[in-house]
Design brief:
Helix 7 packs across helix 11. The protein is built from 17 helices and 14 strands.
Length: about 425
């Protein structure tokens, strides 16, 4: 946490990007342009920042802007000197994110982002954890659809299990019941970069096989030795949900964040806690066919993006480019319904659901990221949370759940409790 008196409570870095513009519009509605929360927008291009202010309308007339370039550490340092919190939407983070994390860790500036890149997060923890602890900077990655609904969904389920059973669930599974929303070029670019890195780096491929790879600073040797199911669940019949399931593309990052939360919370979910994610596809032959199709599409896309000719073909025909994404109408029409089912060691089961009222990757992600940033600026400014690399659940917990239900269109609700289904 910064110990000087900066000009701003919050700065949105990458404000003119696709998610950045949505985020700024949301923050303007939430806190105004010059109200109790002093915030500013930042990016590399002054002309684009001015255009964004004009696009946001008369309510943004007094919204300040700052210019900074992620490739120029000096300008990033000057930016961090003016704010207590930075929200970053500048991705792919593995290509453009390190300088900002480094400077925030060194200057004690709180930080949150929407990355879903596990290899980059691990590198940031390895390189800057000591500095963040020394300066008091709280660094919170994955504050979008990956991984707030999963991380806080498990946290909420475990809180409810404690209340009902007096104990936590030592096994939890999340199933995507329904989802509607588009994909932006920025997300595709992050995924492509990870695929390319893994293709030429055997150590990274080995790291991606370890669901505890982000627990390196909190008992990683013990964590890595624990048996845990793979992050990408194969096509199989799930007796607890009575449906066929297929791999969920976000599971690779979400599982790691949930496991890190457990470790940061003092293994409050238990030392042998296991977590998995998948998509529901129906219960009969049609469900099996759908699950097989989803699995083939996911695998085929990964293979195609690993090689230049097919990557070029997809990039110039189907896949949106960075800066592109779903229309406003698509964002408004989007939604998601996630179901979490947990079971205690004694066989008691609990099911909760987390729902969002916009498309997950952009309309809802922007609201979640905005509330995470406001949480750091307003709720945790003087809180006794030490510096270091946190997760949404371990940093914010109930405070952010309350914010998301009140102002971000999310709901957390118990569906049922009882004995094991299967």
């Amino acid at each position: 946490m910064v110990d000087h008196k900066p000009s701003y409570d919050l700065v949105v870095f990458g404000a003119t990007g696709f998610v950045g513009r949505i985020l700024c519009g949301y923050l303007l509605k939430q806190v105004g342009g010059n109200g109790s929360v002093k915030w500013a927008i930042a990016g590399r291009s002054e002309s684009k920042l001015k255009a964004l202010i004009a696009e946001l309308g008369s309510g943004a007339d007094n919204l300040p802007y700052l210019t900074a370039d992620v490739t120029d550490e000096g300008s990033v340092r000057a930016l961090c000197g003016q704010t207590r919190v930075v929200i970053s939407t500048v991705g792919p983070y593995a290509l453009y994110g390190e300088a900002l994390v480094k400077v925030c860790a060194e200057t004690g500036t709180d930080y949150c982002d929407l990355t879903g890149e596990p290899q980059w997060i691990r590198q940031m923890i390895e390189r800057y954890q000591a500095g963040a602890k020394a300066s008091g900077a709280r660094i919170v990655h994955c504050c979008g659809f990956d991984s707030i609904p999963s991380d806080l969904g498990v946290y909420y389920l475990q809180q409810q299990a404690q209340e009902r059973f007096g104990r936590v669930c030592d096994r939890v599974k999340m199933r995507v019941k329904s989802v509607q929303g588009g994909v932006s070029g920025g997300t595709i670019a992050s995924g492509v970069n990870l695929i390319q890195e893994a293709r030429v780096n055997p150590e990274l491929r080995q790291e991606l096989d370890n669901p505890y790879s982000l627990c390196l600073d909190i008992g990683s040797e013990t964590a890595q030795a624990m048996a845990h199911p793979p992050t990408l669940v194969p096509v199989q019949y799930d007796p607890d949900f009575q449906a066929w399931v297929s791999p969920f593309v976000m599971a690779a990052i979400n599982t790691r964040i949930v496991l890190r939360s457990n470790a940061l919370l003092g293994y409050s979910y238990g030392q042998s806690f296991q977590y998995e994610e998948a998509m529901l596809n129906g219960s009969k032959a049609k469900g099996w066919l759908s699950a097989q199709g989803m699995s083939l599409v996911l695998g085929g896309f990964a293979v195609a993006m690993a090689f230049a000719p097919t990557r070029w073909l997809l990039g110039n025909t189907i896949v949106p480019k960075p800066g592109e994404g779903p229309s406003f109408e698509s964002q408004e029409a989007g939604f998601y319904d996630l179901r979490f089912w947990g079971i205690t060691a004694e066989g008691e089961s609990l099911e909760v659901k987390v729902m969002g009222d916009r498309d997950p990757g952009y309309g809802s992600t922007a609201k979640m990221l905005g509330q995470a940033g406001l949480c750091l600026a307003e709720d945790f400014a003087g809180a006794d949370k030490p510096g270091g690399f946190w997760t949404p659940a371990s940093m914010f917990g109930d405070v952010l759940i309350e914010r998301l239900e009140k102002a971000a269109g999310l709901t957390f609700e118990v569906c049922g409790a009882g004995s094991s289904k299967g």
